[in-house]
Amino acid sequence: MREISMIITLMLKEKKDVLLSILYGFLAGMGAVAVFANSGYLISKAAIMPPLYVLTVSIALLKLFSFTRALSRYAERYYSHRATFTILSNLRVHFFEKIMPLAPQIFQKYRSGDLLSRIVGDVESLQNFFLRVFYPPFVMVTVFLATIAFTMFFSIYIGLILIVGVVLTGFAIPAWFAVKQSHLERQVREQRGQLSVSATEFLYGFRDLKIHQKLAKQESDLIDASDAYIHEQEKDGRRALFSQSLNNGITMIISWFVLAVGAYFVSIGELEGVFLAMLVMVSLTVFENAVPMAAFPNHYEESRLAAARLYSVVENEEAEQTRSEEVLEKLENSQPWSLTMENLTFTYPFEDRQALHDINLNIPIGSKTAIVGPSGSGKSTLLQLFLKVYEADSGHVLINGKDVRKVEEESIWSGTNTLLQDHHFFYGTIRENLQLAKDGLTDLQMNEALANVKLEDFSLDDSVLEKGENLSGGEKQRLSIARALLKGSRLWLLDEPTSSVDVLTEKVIYEHVFDQASNDTLLLVSHRLTGLEKMDRIVVMNEGTILETGTYDQLMKQKGYFYEMKQIEKSVFSA
Amino acid sequence: MVSSILIGLSIIAQAYFIVAIVDHVFLNDGTFQDIIPWLGGLFIALLARAMFSYVNGRTGLRMASKVKSDIRKQLLQKYARNPMQASIKGQSGEKVSVMLDSVDEIESYFRHYYPQMIQSTIVPLMMLVAVFSYNWVSGVILVVTAPFIPIMMIIIGKNTQKKSEEQMEKMAVFSGRFLDILQGLSTLKFFGRAKDKREDIRNSSIDYREATMDVLKIAFLSSLMLEFISMLSIALVALEVGLRLVIYDQLTFFTAFFVLILVPEFFASLKELGSAFHTGRGSMGAATRISDELEEEELPVHWGDKSLDVSGGPPTIDLRGVHFSYGENRFALKQIDANVPPNSEVAIVGRSGAGKTTLLHLLSGLIAPTDGSIDVEGRPLFDYKESDWFHQLSYISQNPYLFSGTIEENIALGLTDFSREEVVEAAEQAGIAEMISKLDKGYDTKIGEGGRGLSGGEKQRVAIARAFLKKPTVILFDEPTVGLDLKTEQILQRSMKKLGHSSTVITVAHRLHTIMRADQILFIEDGELVANGTHDELLRSSPSYKNMVRVQQGGDAG
User: Chain B: nearest CA to A425, how far in angstroms?
Assistant: First the structure.
């Protein structure tokens, strides 16, 4: 409920469109009622031979009502949809502002890639909140109030019947189904999850399933999962259909009562017969406005869940982050820093195995260090701890002798040329993507940076698609390096920056990087063991800890882990 | 169909009874007693209308469920018959989405559009007949005006189609911005740029709104036109019956009222068809995607019923003029001839893209040669029973897939007759027992989807353990192209040697020691077998092979 009220607050920023939607919705609803009331009256009046001017006026009114109705409906749709999309824009900005301070930690914590698409999807589904949940009840209530007041004028009883009708179809039945909805929806989601797992295993694990002769079983599991999912969907659909039909049926019965009671009063002379047709037509029409309420439970539940999910993501994190109220120190970043780790252990959230343990490392100012080791040995994690993306379970991470716990993370980032494995490129141009690095970059500087990473063929005006879809892995890596070169901070944290770049190009790029970084502190995670001869030090990691450190020559002489890895690398054919 | 007719009938009956009741008490001064039977009739008609709509909806739902279920089964069969192409092309993810999302998306066609189409074809016709039979002039007005609705729709559609297609593209771009920016949020933060993007989101969302509204305005406009046409038509009918009732005295009140109730129903039904049409159109894209999948070319594999006897050790395997292509002009393996004696070690060597993995798939029997044959014990492989062959076979890929389940289930994959001791022994041989024993639940730890993740090296070792437990006579091994951790590397070497004692091992080799150890190397270039022999023989006989080895060892300098 609290989440919903936050959404409503956001929504009411668009007061004007909201009010216009309700106003035109009301006019359209009333227009329809008036058209049918009028035609019922007209035809009855015609039957008793009235003076012609009565008919002329009625017909003119009929036209007026018809036009009002059609045009109001158009305006209602226009304003309500416009409001919807404006609200969507506000929602996006709102949630962006909420998520912004939590990055990048939040993305690392929920390492599943679907967190983001879920956020986007949830924000998107909230746009329906206004269109399907918020304003239809207002329109319904106002139209009914006006109509009931009108009918009361002719017959109190018929007015009362309509009140019963609107309470049942507009509130009682939707509310009743809303309660049942949440349960069913969860089941549909669960079954879908099962099906998704089955289908994924079937297709990705096909070869193993086939050779181990488990394919038939997986196939039948998949069919079962599919049928169970379809069954739940059908149940859900049946329930929606039933709620709709029930609403419909009750509407019909209300109209029947209106006719029966009306006919009775006409027969005993308490109601003029000429109004009977009109009242019946009114009753048959006015309930059109209760129709959107049948879909209300579905949309309400959807919005509520979406809002709850969104706020649970941002608020849990906020709560965790605000625990340290103390003012954090800003690091001065015009000079290179030293980096230290002392007795550090670290475990990823939701895992029980330690990703890093017993790490002691000291990286002097201006030194060049390579970290090597098999995949999963903790190399990247180490870099992220220096960036304060994670915090250590125990032990210390120090930058220039200061514990990062007491340092403002933005100041670490602004002093670092960070190149982690997920380089993001935005929709736009190469220029826009490079300009992220620093303000006031000239085209000349950017072209030079492109040349340094051997991308001189690229034009700054070339377009880039979302996530750099139109760039190859190697091109993305090279662009990231260009961006880092442009940024020009004094600490370099590079995580396999050239894994998709060929050896020759890599060599050229490294020359530029090392040239620019000659006095800077540099930490390079490398998947290749070649070209490390010039590093001041090589740190060898395996299974979350440091096995050995030393220069290339020392390690080769030592004939330890690095030496063995080197032998394997020599024997692996990359051809 | 039947329920649609019944809906039509109940609408007509409803109109008839309402008119009769009003007519009776209003003009004929009848008593309430007189109209009770009509009220009863009306009550039944109203209930019937609600009920038959429900039945119609149920039919649509059931039909949608049946279609979805059938299509999923068809897709599944298709994939089961012809899946290797999918995994070779790396499209498994896409296919999962076809199976889940596309199938779900076709629902609205069957659930909403189809029943509504039937209903909207039948019901207006019945209304028309009813109107004609009471007052032909009104009927003629309807027949003349109604066609303007589709004509108008076509005109509007024609003029706006291009525009809306343009808008659709814009919409896709604008709506993608939010996700794009969120995905890049870490990058933005590291560059201290996150705040700048706030306005970007707002602007692109407003642009999205404008583009969407342009499209929607067209839709709203067409329903406005529809409304005007039906309104005009209703007004014409009202004028006609009014004049004939009052001035010419040609009609009774009964007829006039009856017609006036039915005419709006006539148009309402047509309008519903329009909106159902829009929902139905959304399914079209999904339907195309599914039929594309179902029409994908197949290269089916048919197995025989001969038994394969391996009591005397691993079978002899012969490749006789094996060809393979993925369809016209697509990649092919050409004329591969080779003999693989029992217990031998074969290395398949070549540059990436040469066709090494395809050859391994052919040897496994997962795909069939398009020409030539693979003979096992002197008889075509596909003469044997599928289960007999796969029972003899282990396939260790570069990225072994772990299924959701326990570690034990993953090691024993497909076997029914095994004990915990055997599983533990296999795990020990594959060098993973130590890691497992450190886990709280040991062999019962859940892994795979939704379970604990294993590193690349650990997955390899699970796959090796599978082979130790299965004890096959033929092992196909796709050696990893990158170096794993030292321990896994050592285990791989040791294990393959051990497994080679009791079986034939065919490896797509990426390591020099594997190649040097092989009894026979199949050197492949561009789908052709260019040399066949031991390492030393090939160094002497094949300049191309020699060059490749030399580059590899010299490449170290880079």
Answer: 7
Domains contained in chain B, number: 2
Query: Could you tell me if B364 and B482 lie in one domain?
Result: yes
**How far apart, in whole angstroms, are the C-alpha atoms of residue B241 and residue B237?**
6
Superfamily of domain A339-415+489-571: P-loop containing nucleotide triphosphate hydrolases (3.40.50.300)
- Contact residues, A window 57-76, toward B, CB-based 8 Å cutoff: 59, 62-63, 66-67, 69-71, 73-74
pLDDT tens column, B480-500: 877 678 888 888 888 998 999
B31 to A267: CB separation less than 8 angstroms, yes or no: yes
Per-residue tens of pLDDT for chain B, all 558 residues = 788 899 899 999 999 998 888 888 888 888 888 888 999 999 999 999 889 989 988 988 999 999 999 999 999 888 887 656 545 555 677 788 888 888 888 888 888 888 888 888 888 899 999 999 988 888 999 999 888 887 887 777 777 767 777 777 777 777 778 888 888 888 888 888 888 888 888 888 888 888 888 888 888 888 888 888 888 888 888 888 878 877 777 888 888 888 888 888 888 888 887 777 777 776 777 888 888 888 877 777 888 999 988 888 899 999 999 988 876 666 678 889 999 999 999 999 988 777 888 899 899 988 888 889 999 998 999 999 988 999 899 999 888 888 888 899 889 987 888 899 999 999 999 989 988 888 888 898 888 665 556 777 888 899 999 999 999 999 999 988 776 788 888 888 889 989 999 999 999 988 888 888 899 999 998 888 989 999 999 999 999 888 888 777 654 433
Q: What is the distance between the alpha carbons of residues A73 and A351, in angstroms, rounded to a whole number? A: 56
Mean pLDDT of A163-187: 84
Percent of chain B with pLDDT over 70: 94
CATH code of A2-99+127-312, in short, is 1.20.1560.10
Residue A43 to residue B221, Cβ atoms within 8 A: no
Is residue B81 less than 8 Å (CB to CB) from chain A? no
Same domain, B346 and B450: no
A 9-68 residues inside an 8 A Cβ radius of B: 36, 39-40, 42-44, 46-49, 52, 55, 59, 62-63, 66-67
Shortest distance, CA A473 to any CA of chain B (angstroms): 16
Nearest CA of chain B to the CA of A504: how many Å?
A: 7
Q: What is the largest CA-CA distance in chain A?
A: 118
Which residues from chain A sit within 8 angstroms of residue B416, using beta carbons?
Answer: none
Nearest CA in chain A to B237: A39
pTM reported for the whole predicted model:
0.78
Q: If 0-12 CB within 10 Å is exposed, 13-18 middle and 19+ buried, where does residue A351 land?
A: exposed
Neighbour tally for A518: CB within 10 Å: 10
Q: Is residue B378 part of a domain?
A: yes
Q: Pick from B444, B471, B498: which residue ends a domain?
A: B471
Instruction: Note whether A454 and A447 are within 8 A (CB).
Output: no
User: Using CA atoms, how far apart are residues B400 and B235, in angstroms rounded to an integer?
Assistant: 73
For the range B539-545, what are the long-range contacts, defined as Cβ-Cβ under 8 Å and sequence gap of 24 or more? B545/B349, B545/B521
Domain of residue B413 covers: 404-471
What is the domain-level CATH number for residue B388? 3.40.50.300
Task: Compute how many other C-beta atoms are within 10 angstroms of the C-beta atom of residue B159.
Answer: 10
| Residue B454 Cα, gap to closest chain A Cα (Å) | 9
Last residue of a domain, one of B422, B447, B471: B471
Residue B147 located in a structural domain: no
Q: Where are the domains of chain A?
A: 2-99+127-312, 339-415+489-571
Do B482 and B383 share a structural domain?
yes
The 3-state DSSP class for residue A304 equals: helix
Listed residue (B309, B366, B315, B322) closest to B340, CA to CA? B315
Angstrom CA distances, A94 to A18, A48, B201, stand at 19, 63, 10
The rounded Cα A379 to chain-centroid distance in angstroms is 30
Placement of tokens 């342009």 in the chain = B214
Co-location of B467 and B322 in the same domain? no
- For residues B388 and B482, membership in a common domain is answered with yes
